[in-house]
Write a sequence for this structure.
């Protein structure tokens, strides 16, 4: 379940990117993947995607 949110779609080097902006993200049974405990910086992610060929 996602609280109040916006979604964005974009292309980076021909790859589709979907971004969710939200105050909270809640998973079934209250379990959250480890990736959401310490998310990467957005610009680092964009740079990583941009470097892919």
């Amino acid at each position: 379940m996602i609280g109040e949110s916006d979604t964005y779609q974009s292309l980076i080097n021909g790859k589709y990117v979907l971004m969710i902006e939200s105050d909270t993200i809640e998973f079934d049974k209250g379990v959250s993947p480890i990736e959401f405990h310490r998310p990467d910086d957005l610009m680092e992610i964009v740079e990583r995607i941009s470097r892919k060929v």
About this structure: The helical segments are 42-51. The radius of gyration is 13 Å. The chain is about 20% helix and 30% strand. The mean pLDDT is 80.
